[in-house]
Amino acid sequence: MINSLLGVVLVVVVVFCVPLALVEKQSIVNTAQDRVDAAAVRLLGLVESRLAAGEPVTQERIGTQAIEGDYAEIRIPGQPVITIGDRPKGNPLKATEPGPSGETVTVEQSRTDVTREIGDMLLLLGLVTLLAVQTAVALAVWQARRLARPLTDLAETAERLGSGDPRPRDRRFGVPELDRVAEVLDASAERIGRMLTAERRLAADASHQLRTPLTALSMRLEEITALAHQPETVREEATIALQQVERLTDVVQRLLTNQRDTHGPSTGGFQLDEVIRQQREEWAATMRGAGRRLVIEGLGGVVALGTPGTVSQVLATLIENSLMHGAGTVTLRVRPSGSSVVVEVQDEGQGVSAELGNRVFERAVSGHNSTGIGLAVARDLAEADGGRLELLSLKPPVFALFLNRAVAA
User: Fold this and answer.
1) In this structure, what are the phi and psi dihedrals at residue 297, rounded to the nearest 5 degrees?
2) What pLDDT digit, counting tens, does each position of 164-178 carry?
3) 298: Cβ–Cβ under 8 A, 6 or more apart, which residues?
């Protein structure tokens, strides 16, 4: 910036000052020449007045004060040439004026004064040029520092982003271009922050959601070990365990899709009875171990829209929630609701407090010292799959999963 601004100033100086110097030089020379011409005219008038009065024209009578120059030469027909002063050397300024009677007056003046005036003029222009260059350099340095500080700050912000600190600084510098860069960096910082939050949330969700199927899988494997003397039972339990593994894989994939996929929910149809049967089989042993029952009621043969693995995981979360925080019989009820089908999960416990009811699906909100993640993730999974999860009743607690119902062809 300093070099650029200095170059611009030098170009302006060359374009402006050089022609100005030439014009001023010629003006000084012309002014001096005009003075010599005027001196010649005045001297000629003096000579003519003396000739008209019949007075002799001599060096003594004219005098050196009358010529207004360094040297004068008067030529009168029939008389010797009259010279006044010393002829200057070099190339003096000269003016010659002829008179009506044939007389001629020539005045010469040395260029010393002219050269001195031209030198003073050039010195003045040089001082102005030097002052302009110094001003330009000072301005360039100030502007460079003014721009360098924001650029340094932006570089530090970019470095912080690269090191994993996504906090936006919200600093502006009064320079539109730099402010635009700062806005872009702040927006990038916010996006990076959201991405990091989503990744951390994904890790928390995955760890929480994997716990339920892994627990059930562990229990199934324990039953396989205990019933090893019954081949048919072992085969049945192994099949259920494999289904658990498949659902676990589907849940992991769905969690990843929930964070990254932007193509919308699945629109495929599936048999809701299969998912409910799977839940009954998976939770039967756990319910028996807790001295409780899982009862299935309502419609059968319903074809719902969505992903079986996702619906299965949401229902498993609701059943686990009733098992951990509720009491008595857990009822899984299927009923129609307009163009949708509703799967309700209800137990006979104390229910959800009024204070907690409006926030039960918020993350880190729990009334029983749990993580507060399960219901929040279940609602996210349901919405990502095109459904919705709601709390219909506080006491008895009734959670409802609304799914779109497939239209018969």
Assistant:
1) -135, 160
2) 677 777 777 777 877
3) 333, 334, 335
